[in-house]
């Protein structure tokens, strides 16, 4: 049963070895696309300067370097994007409960 759904709804052909040699680098391509889109939205001027943060590297979210810092950056960008979309959203603080922050972000996104 080639291509039949496996456990967890995953297709057996979705394993990294069966997707091809470039599959391991796909996350880097996605991160570069994300960074390009954020730059088009002027994230450096509007989001980073306001919070005194440094710009993202091309591989910031593709490599797990500092999960706490990466999570806070993700939440900061998510809050900024929600606000940019016209919804009021309180900027999360670095020491807020991560579960509460994610719950608030997901709740706001569901309401879109």
TrEMBL record:
It holds the Pfam family IFT57. It is found in: Cell projection, Cilium. Residues 8-17 have a biased composition (Basic and acidic residues). Its main location: other. Residues 1-21 are annotated as: Disordered. Keywords: Cell projection, Cilium. InterPro entries: Intra-flagellar_transport_57 (IPR019530). GO terms for cellular component: cilium; Golgi apparatus; intraciliary transport particle B; microtubule organizing center. GO terms for biological process: intraciliary transport; non-motile cilium assembly. PANTHER family: IFT57/HIPPI, INTRAFLAGELLAR TRANSPORT PROTEIN 57 HOMOLOG. Belongs to the IFT57 family. This is Intraflagellar transport protein 57 homolog.
């Amino acid at each position: 049963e080639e291509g039949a759904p496996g456990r967890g709804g995953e297709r057996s052909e979705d394993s990294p070895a069966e997707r091809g040699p470039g599959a391991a680098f796909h996350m880097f391509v996605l991160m570069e696309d994300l960074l390009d889109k954020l730059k088009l939205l002027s994230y450096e001027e509007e989001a980073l300067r306001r919070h005194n943060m440094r710009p993202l590297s091309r591989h910031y979210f593709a490599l797990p370097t500092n999960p706490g810092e990466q999570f806070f950056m993700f939440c900061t960008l998510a809050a900024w994007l929600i606000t940019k979309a016209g919804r009021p959203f309180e900027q999360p603080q670095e020491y807020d409960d991560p579960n509460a922050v994610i719950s608030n972000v997901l709740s706001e996104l569901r309401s879109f």
